Amino acid sequence: MLGLNKTDSKFLLIVILLTIFTPILMQPFAANSGLDQFNGGYPDLMQKVAIFGIFAVGFNILFGLTGYLSFGHAAFLGIGSYAAVWMFKLLTMNVIPAILLAMIVSGLLAVVIGYISLRRSGIYFSILTLAFAQMCYKMAYSVLTPITNGETGLQLSLSDPRVLDGATTSTSLPVTNIFGLAMNSSYKVEALNRVFTFNVGFYFCAIIAIIAFYVAIRLFRSPFGMMLRAVKSNQQRMNYMGLNTKPYTLAAFVISGMYAGLAGGLLAAMDPLAGADRMLWTASGEVVIMTILGGAGTLMGPVLGAGVIKYLENIFSKINETVLHSWFHWLPDGIEEVVVWIFARFTGEGWHLTLGITFMLVVTFLPGGLVEGLKRLARLARKGRKKTDKFDESDPDHTPPPSKHVV
Amino acid sequence: MDAILLQVLNGLDKGSAYALIALGLTLIFGTLGVVNFAHGAIFMIGAFCAVTLSRILSLSFETIDPTKVDFLGNPATIKTPYVEAWFGPEFGGALIDWAVPLAILFSIPIMIAVGFIMERGLIKHFYKRPHADQILVTFGLAIVLQEVIKYFYGANPISTPAPEVFKGSFDFGAMFGFDPNVIIYPYWRMVYFLFAAVVIGAVFSFLRFTTFGMVVRAGMADRETVGLLGIDIDRRFTIMFGLAAAVAGMAGVMYAPILSPNYHMGMDFLVLSFVVVVVGGMGSLPGAVAAGFLLGVLESFASMNEIKSIIPGIDQIIIYVVAIIILLTRPRGLLGKRGVMEE
Amino acid sequence: MSNSLLTRRGLLKTSAVAGAGLALPTIFTSGASAFTNDPTGSTVTLGFNVPQSGAYADEGADELRAYELAVEHLNGGGDGGMLNTFSSKALEGNGILGKKVEFVTGDTQTKSDAARASAKSMIEKDGAVMITGGSSSGVAIAVQGLCQEAGVIFMAGLTHSNDTTGKDKKANGFRHFFNAYMSAAALAPVLKNLYGSDRKAYHLTADYSWGWTQEESIAAATEAMGWQTVEKVRTPLGAGDFSSYIAPVLNSGADVLVLNHYGGDMVNSLTNAVQFGLRDKQVNGKNFEIVVPLYSRLMARGAGKNVAGIHGSTNWHWSLQDDASKAFVKSFGTKYGFPPSQAAHTVYCQTLLYADAVARGGSFNPCAVGEALEGFEFDGLGNGPTLYRADDHQCFKDVLVVRGKENPTSEFDLLEIVEVTPAAQVTYPADHPMFAGGALGACNPGA
């Protein structure tokens, strides 16, 4: 199907099905069941998972294939957002031109940064990309305020020209749309004591995410992808063979920068605001961590990682002590206090602790990331088969090659 | 001229902070081959050693003073520190006043222990893992350490003053014939600079002139061969990790009066210290120190009004601009070694 | 790329089961209610969106305490706090319009993105009908914009920038806290009395929008009374060590240093300035002085003894002796064991003001609430007689000028009130140039 082999087609099909049913899958707990706090099936979170999924898949094209660890990808995310919001302000609220411009602008920036940074490798490359991204962040926050609106972030205003949309006399801000269909409109279905929200914005992100995912599969399987993997395993040998690897790595860098710009544009399309915080080094670090957490070099891993981190951030940070008390009110008083105290360290204001511990546990016990965890679970479940060792199946995509000790 | 001298002084001071952090980081990063994102957190823990000691010294018992009332209108409780009750208000007060310098002694064993536990408990399992995994696990550790500190000390900065003796500043200008008040420099910053020089000198001579240092340097150059010679290089690397933690921790203790400690100060320094280490060149201790001072001085120059009026906002990005220029002109930073962390 | 067969099947099965549920949908028509998240049950949900991580986490924690206290009082619990002193008596301690008040909390992380994500989840998932909170202007403005689009009311927490009710004002957003212009207008006369009208000021300003509005306001106010501005220097946010900005101050001929910094920057720049011995120096034959236009008691603790004798302004302080402040300090102090901060006070007031507006307007509809708040005059919330101006949704009330105490008697007793500047003196016309460039627009009930 579509130039994919059988396994990949099946895989893509599953991804498509999973995406279509996300609003249902992420709403597993009935309302008032006490666990509905854990439901993630509301538009904002679903959109974020899809968008950061795109971001991480794009990052993985560079990192997973070539091994170049960029610590400045947030710059592309940020500039994509700014480009998109400017498009909403000047041209039209239709998201298509905004997203296209976001990809173009971030692609151009990626050419410049990539061309310079790729002159170095290893940690030197990482620090160069980090330096560029931090420069973008610092300037967007201060001296570039006329373009970026600094701390507050670039927002729409009533007085924007929006030349294609024509003059309106409305006193409220227009909403982003695709040919008239508003991104924030939702269709709600109540069934099985749950409310399922089918949101236009989410499905728009989901379709783009699937396309982005498909492109990534094709890239991974193409001769180009093979070339990039060769760069990862031994760049020197490639150079000795008379191959100039730079165009390949630069192409990978630009493609992954455009993925990031696309993600930034989509963020703005879902919520027309672009803030400098999106370019901070922690945002660059976040995508690195999503990728590694899920499983670097795998196709599904980055998406999984993005989902887990966004879920923790949005769901765990909202479980406050009042919620905990309502969960454990059936316990005797003294014990309830103790249990609530313990849980409160990991939820609400303590959600960062959960995040940190998750990172440590996953990377210590699942060297291949969450994808590796899923594989192990599957292996456990497959009882009838012979006992297997984790080293038995060698899939180059799932197990990053052990790097040489640098000393 | 006077303005330039003034900024050189400021830069040296900033530079000594960068150099100290980068020195510890490069001991781990450039020699053990571990990308340690928790290094900023170690610096932060050092600063909180100072806070903790000053809290311990100020531990108080409460007596009720019926003549005064607290904010709710109840009789106020007066706190008297135990040390003042035991040693008399004069000596006790001096002890509390000198909490930060005393915290150096207090912090060394703690920081070495922290280093040992980190290395033995976690890092040693990651020597042979990809750098990306090291980043993730140490970043997770940094978050956990931060959250623990936040739980005990809150999120706001905590005032940790230097001893009264070091209050105020020294007028260098008057000494060299400039107008008074032109080149002033706080006493505590002079102490910090001297302290940094001593620590840097001590670390270098330790590695240069002791047998232990020689073995470690050999291990840095070729770990396997040293291992084949029957030397337990792992144990020495553990000690190195403890040493690096102690250096970062002491830097944190002494920095507390300059920058009131808060739980996320480590993250603020993390990016900067990585830039310093890489600009200095991977695996090079002198490089890290040189880069620290260079970036400190340049950053101070960039914050001069004369320069800011030519290029607005240059002080925000100078460090990154310099880093890019240096890495493009010198492929391995100032003094980096070939082949370290390049793949 | 292969995933395991079993996982796939498992997931497919789950999807199939969930899909079966779709067979009997009951469709919610979103047009059924007149506004977003109309509370139809016996409860109403408010969203408290405060920083729980990052530099302002302690202020966020104090805000949350005040919110919980306000909810307790609204639902008839506790001693009623400022409900007893509030001039409007529409609230009866039975929730809001008879609906029990419930709340959800979220973490803004002091980042616009995270704050909006958190506010969105409150609106989309938890059905919050009002969002409140925030501890920085960037976040407040970002969330205010979101609430305008979503059709819920936003009651701003700690936000001091002129822009919140200036060029970024929104019909659905309301601010009780004071702003940079008011700080400057209140401080300037006090400074003139203390330091004379012949002074040269050197400004260090945090290089972002709040810093700029603060610098613009205080420079204009001090220049109006005869001071000269020698230099305005922008410092990077979170610079940490401010030595290279402070060292040239003495040589510039200035005799007053104005620190337009807040939070961690304020603590560090003030600590550095005192460390450099600026306050022991004489310039132009006068004692060198430092001014911090916006004080926060929580943050002032970080600067320790360095705040002694330094003047600034604040929205409210627990040592105020009017009945309302005393009632609030008593109920907060009894519950938590320490006095409330100005952040806690302003968010407590905002919650009460919202609830009262709903009760008076008889509806949770944002437009009805907005109408009830616009032009509302009240008293008994600790700041004296106050007006919620209709033109820009800003509260006009007395501003406190405070000074760092020389000999604090406890860890909370850091500031003393120097003067209570009456509201009339800090009031400005709605079309003042510092607040120009925005429009409220029309209220948006959403849905």
TrEMBL record, chain A:
Residues 389-398 have a biased composition (Basic and acidic residues). The chain crosses the membrane at residues 12-30, 50-69, 98-116, 123-144, 200-220, 247-267, 287-312, 350-374. The keyword Magnesium does not apply. CDD domains: TM_PBP1_LivM_like (cd06581). Residues 383-407 are annotated as: Disordered. This is Leucine/isoleucine/valine transporter permease subunit. One of its GO terms (molecular function) is branched-chain amino acid transmembrane transporter activity. Keywords: Cell membrane, Membrane, Transmembrane, Transmembrane helix. It is found in: Cell membrane. It comes from the Bacteria. InterPro entries: ABC_transp_permease (IPR001851), LivM-like (IPR043428). It is a multi-pass membrane protein. The keyword Transmembrane applies. One of its GO terms (cellular component) is plasma membrane.
UniProtKB/TrEMBL annotation, chain B:
Keywords: Amino-acid transport, Cell membrane, Membrane, Transmembrane, Transmembrane helix, Transport. Pfam families: BPD_transp_2 (PF02653). It is found in: Cell membrane. One of its GO terms (biological process) is amino acid transport. InterPro entries: ABC_transp_permease (IPR001851), BCAA_transport_permease (IPR052157). Belongs to the binding-protein-dependent transport system permease family. LivHM subfamily. This is High-affinity branched-chain amino acid transport system permease protein LivH. It comes from Pacificibacter marinus. The lineage of its organism: Bacteria, Pseudomonadati, Pseudomonadota, Alphaproteobacteria, Rhodobacterales.
Automatic annotation (TrEMBL), chain C:
It holds the Pfam family Peripla_BP_6. Keywords: Amino-acid transport, Receptor, Signal, Transport. It comes from the Bacteria. One of its GO terms (biological process) is amino acid transport. Residues 1-34 form the signal peptide. InterPro entries: BCAA_transport, Leu-bd, Peripla_BP_I, TAT_signal, TAT_signal_bac_arc. PROSITE patterns: TAT (PS51318). Gene3D superfamilies: 3.40.50.2300. Residues 43-405 form the Leucine-binding protein domain. Belongs to the leucine-binding protein family. This is Receptor family ligand binding region.
